[in-house]
Design a protein that fits this description.
347 residues; alpha/beta; Rossmann fold; Dihydrodipicolinate Reductase, domain 2; 2 domains; 7-stranded parallel β-sheet; 7-stranded mixed β-sheet; 14 strands
Length: 347
Amino acid sequence: MRDIVRAGILGASGYTGADLVRLLSTHTGVSIDLMTANSHAGKPMAEVYPHLGGLDLPDLVKWEDADWSNLDVVFCGLPHGTTQDIIATLPDKVKVVDLSADFRLRNPETYAEWYGHEHRAPHLQDSAVYGLSELNREDIHRARLVACPGCYPTAVLLALVPLAQRRAIRSEDLIVDAKSGATGAGRAVKEATLFCEVAEGLHPYSVSRHRHSPEIEQEVGAAFGTAVNVNFTPHLVPMNRGELVTCYVKLEEGIKVSDLRAALDEQYRDEPFVRVLPEGAVPATRHVRGSNFCLIGVFADRIPGRAIVIATIDNLVKGSSGQAIQNMNLMFGLPESMGLEQQPLFP
């Protein structure tokens, strides 16, 4: 392991790219040596994001002009479909933390079905490690290519996978009601995320067809050891950042709600970023804003034999850039919480 990890950021002008820069600016083990943004090539980062103007950063360049030779790791914050071609051209010595969806789904046919085109780097898929840090730590440490989970799957899987692995809940009739801030849609201008379309209202989107559905089913199914269907519906909330998922589950016979909380406590008691709340405490997005934390609460449903598990994260940090840095720390043998010690911003 070298003293300083030299990093590049692909897609640095997006929201996740900006949060990567914000978080890495306090990381004493990393230097940012390359940033790409084809639509802003030639500009300093301060021109795109004035709040980052006080940092010593390289100017933005086109990815085609990037020099990879001196880099140790590349963070890929590009749209799905773009990353596959670029990663395939990188030197083998460069490790990759991919924030896109390009390597999350293990079955290339499933990827093609949900993302509308064939996988263009299937030879790399088998080597990609699913980057849910708390549940896949050892494989991430040995990986060259880590596929960071989507923001919704991060919250859902942290809440449900330990319960599925312990057979505390049943594999059928899993329902997830999810809500996210507008930054989850990215920075590109879209009619659906204009202020007048988002403010003062709440609406579901991608009903029964959200691309995170197969990712959630893949990982929850692996935890159960059988294929599952998850009823997943996301909603857009008129806030900038934050995410909350409410998971409705059936208890296995003989299992009590207190057993679910005990199982999650056992799983996460030594984790730096996942906190299981005491009985009666309700997770809220304002309690994790700007941080890499995930808060989980467990409640009895008024319907016998059912429970409600609620998890909240900041979609841009634990749901994206923070988790990417957590994975990079694992890949390079750095302290896992390095660069991620920021406490939530409240109110």
